[in-house]
User: Which sequence fits this backbone?
């Protein structure tokens, strides 16, 4: 069986969804293939705190999404309520509501075929152009072909372009490859903003740690309480947190930033192993704090990116066990002070979230995987202030803006002599990063035709640590949807598409393509 669509999208991530909605609204038939049973990637799997620092730079479909969330909350909570305030005009939300809103936006188009719980088996390439993809229904194991005029790789992992034979990067560049000050092996004092001894700048195959982003509730009547430790629980994995507590690594940050996940009462307690941000409905977005040396997730993602479907499931299962084990440890370990345990016991899994997954998030937080080698490679010089490029850098083919500080989770576990920070952690380089233009070329492979890549795109590790935010990916997905439409309309390839025509449509759709502050 061969199903035909104008545009075939692999990955029901926010970037893939934005691409599909945009293209469908322009009249295109669209298929979205997603291996999980739920769409939305991290946006519907616990990342309820939108990673946007400067709202004026991210518009378009992402702004429409937050507006819809805001409108829903206005129907649920009274005007002056704390819950309505906590949603921050739709930028903070719970996973279930995010999924409902995205599903509604997809359904409204009437032109998107959602193929959930389907996985990619093979990419068929003809004359250096993606021709078809073979996919499999994970439940029935039935396989079939999908044909498209344009293909979109919206996976976190870059699976479609890897299957097509496009060139990609995996791991970290050396400091010398692009002259990036923070590239390669690095120890970075996140409190003082300085590079520490031991930072060689050498490249390696290491990737920032993966985790799960936890949605927890403070409502006892909505709580699923762990009554036993998870499978393979190992207390010794978490006892190094006691050293972090003693050495002040669970204390308050030097500078407090609103919305970054700080509960002052958690400072200097074991609960500081989590970074907790309030959400509406008596829930929280709980990130797992990457600053303690005991942070248990680095290197646990080894083999994930190049692994097959089943190897990835096993690695995701291991991450789930570690996350469950951490919460169990914080709530139950008798060596933890009773008042600290009581504080941790305020948070449990919500009964009304992830109800078909034991109330645990669906999507592993794949912060970085493959990165395309495209027509242009975004580097630290594009996204941050460096000696080589101390000014704002403009592109003639800009199709989106980025603005989030460079932010990398640790790459390696604690090494002998580590006392300040884990290797590879770059904590929110807000003092260096500034809003930047993203050129269309970062989404176009150097050789493979008929393919656009809005998520695992062409960037160095350092630049990717800024661009890898769901709101930015939604902007890039929107641009990919417009570009796919224009290329089909004008009988062009994505590589040769009329970028000016793409930009005109994006501007009409509310996309931000230049610094709005400088152009006022």
Assistant:
């Amino acid at each position: 069986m061969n199903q035909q669509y104008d545009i075939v999208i692999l990955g029901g991530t926010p970037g893939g969804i934005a691409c599909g909605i945009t293209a469908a609204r322009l009249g295109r038939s669209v298929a979205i293939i997603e291996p999980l049973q739920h769409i939305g990637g991290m946006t519907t799997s616990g990342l309820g705190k939108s990673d946007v620092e400067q709202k004026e730079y991210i518009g378009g479909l992402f702004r429409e999404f937050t507006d819809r969330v805001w409108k829903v909350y206005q129907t649920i909570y009274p005007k002056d309520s704390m819950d309505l305030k906590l949603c921050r005009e739709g930028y903070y939300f719970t996973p279930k509501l995010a999924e409902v809103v995205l599903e509604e936006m997809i359904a409204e188009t009437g032109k998107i075929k959602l193929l959930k719980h389907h996985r990619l088996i093979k990419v068929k390439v003809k004359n250096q152009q993606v021709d078809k993809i073979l996919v499999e229904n994970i439940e029935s194991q039935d396989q079939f072909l999908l044909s498209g005029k344009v293909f979109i790789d919206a996976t976190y992992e870059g699976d479609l372009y890897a299957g097509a034979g496009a060139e990609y990067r995996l791991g970290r560049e050396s400091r010398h490859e692009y002259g990036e000050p923070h590239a390669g092996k690095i120890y970075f004092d996140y409190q003082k903003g300085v590079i520490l001894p031991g930072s060689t700048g050498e490249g390696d195959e290491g990737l920032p740690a993966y985790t799960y982003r936890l949605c927890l509730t403070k409502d006892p009547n909505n709580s699923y309480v762990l009554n036993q430790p998870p499978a393979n629980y190992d207390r010794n994995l978490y006892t190094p947190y006691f050293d972090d507590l003693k050495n002040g690594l669970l204390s308050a940050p030097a500078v407090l930033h609103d919305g970054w996940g700080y509960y002052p009462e958690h400072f200097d307690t074991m609960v500081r192993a989590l970074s907790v941000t309030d959400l509406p409905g008596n829930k929280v977005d709980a990130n797992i704090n990457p600053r303690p040396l005991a942070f248990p997730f680095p290197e646990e993602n080894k083999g994930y990116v190049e692994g097959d479907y089943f190897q990835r499931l096993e690695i995701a299962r291991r991450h789930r066990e570690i996350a469950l084990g951490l919460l169990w440890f914080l709530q139950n370990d008798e060596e933890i002070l009773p008042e600290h345990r009581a504080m941790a016991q305020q948070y449990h899994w919500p009964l009304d979230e992830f109800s078909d997954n034991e109330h645990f998030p669906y999507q592993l937080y794949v912060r970085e995987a493959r990165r395309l080698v495209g027509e242009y490679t975004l580097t630290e010089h594009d996204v941050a202030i460096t000696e080589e490029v101390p000014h704002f850098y403009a592109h003639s083919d800009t199709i989106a803006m980025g603005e989030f500080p460079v932010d990398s989770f640790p790459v390696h576990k604690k090494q002998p002599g580590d006392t300040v920070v884990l290797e590879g952690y770059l904590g929110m380089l807000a003092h260096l990063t500034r809003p930047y233009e993203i050129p269309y070329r970062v989404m176009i492979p150097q050789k493979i035709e008929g393919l656009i890549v809005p998520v695992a795109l062409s960037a160095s590790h350092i630049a990717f640590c800024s661009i890898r935010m769901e709101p930015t990916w939604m902007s890039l997905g929107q641009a990919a949807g417009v570009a796919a439409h224009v290329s089909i309309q004008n009988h062009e390839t994505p590589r040769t598409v009329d970028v000016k025509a793409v930009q005109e449509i994006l501007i009409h759709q509310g996309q931000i393509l230049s610094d709005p502050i400088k152009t006022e």
